[in-house]
Amino acid sequence: MTRAFITGIGGQDGSYLAEQLLSAGAEVHALAHPDDRAPVARGVELHPGDLTDIAQTRHLLLDLAPDEVYNLAGVSSVARSWSEPDLTGQVNGLAAVALLESAWQVQEASGRAVRFVQASSAEIFGEPTSSPQDEATLVKPINPYGVSKAYAHLAVEVYRRRKLHAVSAILYNHESPRRPTQFVTRKITATVAAIAHGEADTLALGNLDARRDWGWAPDYVDALVRAARADDARDYVIATGVAHSVREFVEAAFARAGLEDWESHVVIDPAFVRPVDATELVGDSSRARKFLGWAPSVGFEELVGRMVDRDLELVGDQSSSRPSR
Ligand code: NAP
């Protein structure tokens, strides 16, 4: 039986990854951040800890000796990385490299191959001069989040040279109803649902023209597992290859909720405009399609629709459980 170790279990991707691995019969262990309140799939063995506690995490990994390590823990928002750049560097950069070293030590001690997957990000490319980007695109980040992810991304190659099956999955934005509302997509769908139920009136956003390559989170988690289990260790861009604007996302969300005249509900708030915003990031996932047999299974309209539908259900449930006056 495969023994897997996941960090970031309380996040969007960690929850889907745990479910996928469990349903495929793996034994799943996870580092549980003490702040995490998110429900975790039954069957996951939780180990309380913080990734930046390097000695404790190393001890845990050497003890568990997993076959697969998925490093998903991180300060995952660009906005937060601007307010906490040092923490972002510690968690996404230094602690990720320490985990690589721990995985390598497990391999050395056990004599068994360990497969390591790092959740990297398209933000490592910053403002690329060409589009779409692929694994050969210049790494040149423009925000603290991208810098921290770039450090770990480059270290993956270093450990691959040390014969660790280490993979950096260069993930483009991926969404789901489990995305926290701090992220623009979920903020849009949650607010649209509230407006549809008469519980909100306005949606405050930054740059409506910002464009992203948005995919369906469970597809991206599936790519991580495929990359871990592939014969050869390589880096992979995981993306749909199609960009849409925030404006298109808003239009699709209002339409799904049956609301016309979305513009009357949307206000532009300069507070939500990023200090430096990446230009169009669109990924070319040809390598993942070729070597992993991977392809996105959910298109843009369907992705927005699934998120809106779930938020409509959630707001409906909250409204009906509220005592009537
Ligand atoms: P997420 O929902 O923010 O989950 C990240 C998890 O990491 C959270 O449960 C968080 O716990 C945990 N964590 C943060 N600091 C930690 C620490 N010091 N020790 C242990 N755990 C810690 O992010 P996600 O969307 O699932 O993304 C997973 C990974 O993919 C992240 O590394 C992210 O940067 C990367 N990625 C995501 C996307 C995307 O579109 N979703 C795109 C590119 C790359 P707390 O909440 O308690 O802090």
Summarize the model shown.
With 325 residues, the protein is of the alpha/beta class.
What does this structure look like?
With 325 residues, the chain is α/β, with parallel strands linked by helices. Helix content is 43%, strand content 15%. It has a seven-stranded parallel beta sheet, sandwiched between helices. Strands 7-10 form a two-stranded parallel sheet. A two-stranded parallel sheet has the order 8-13. Helix 1 crosses helix 7. Bound molecules: NADP nicotinamide-adenine-dinucleotide phosphate.
Key features?
globular, two-stranded parallel sheet, 325 residues, Rossmann fold, 10 helices, binds NADP nicotinamide-adenine-dinucleotide phosphate, seven-stranded parallel β-sheet, alpha/beta, 43% helix, 2 domains, UDP-galactose 4-epimerase, domain 1
How does the SSE layout of this entry go?
Elements: E1 3-7, H1 12-23, E2 27-32, E3 45-48, H2 54-64, E4 68-71, H3 78-83, H4 85-110, E5 115-121, H5 144-161, E6 165-171, E7 174-175, H6 184-196, E8 203-205, E9 211-212, E10 215-216, H7 217-229, E11 236-238, E12 244-245, H8 246-256, E13 266-268, H9 286-292, H10 300-321
Helix pairs in contact: 1-7, 2-4, 4-5, 6-8, 6-10, 8-10
The protein binds NADP nicotinamide-adenine-dinucleotide phosphate (NAP).
CATH topology title of the largest domain: Rossmann fold
Mean pLDDT over the residues: 95
Global structural class: alpha/beta
| Main β-sheet, spatial strand arrangement | 3-2-1-4-5-6-11
Largest sheet: 7 strands, parallel
The span between the termini is 55 Å
Tell me roughly what share of residues is in helical segments. Answer: 40-55%
Strand content: 15-25%
Q: How much is the radius of gyration in Å?
A: 20 Å
Distinct small molecules: NADP nicotinamide-adenine-dinucleotide phosphate
Number of helices: 10
Number of domains: 2
What is the helix/strand order?
EHEEHEHHEHEEHEEEHEEHEHH
Known CATH architecture of the largest domain: 3-Layer(aba) Sandwich
Ranges where pLDDT stays below 50 over 5 or more residues in a row are none
Rough outline: globular
CATH superfamily of the largest domain: NAD(P)-binding Rossmann-like Domain
- Using the coordinates above, name the CATH class of the largest domain: Alpha Beta
Number of DSSP strand runs:
13
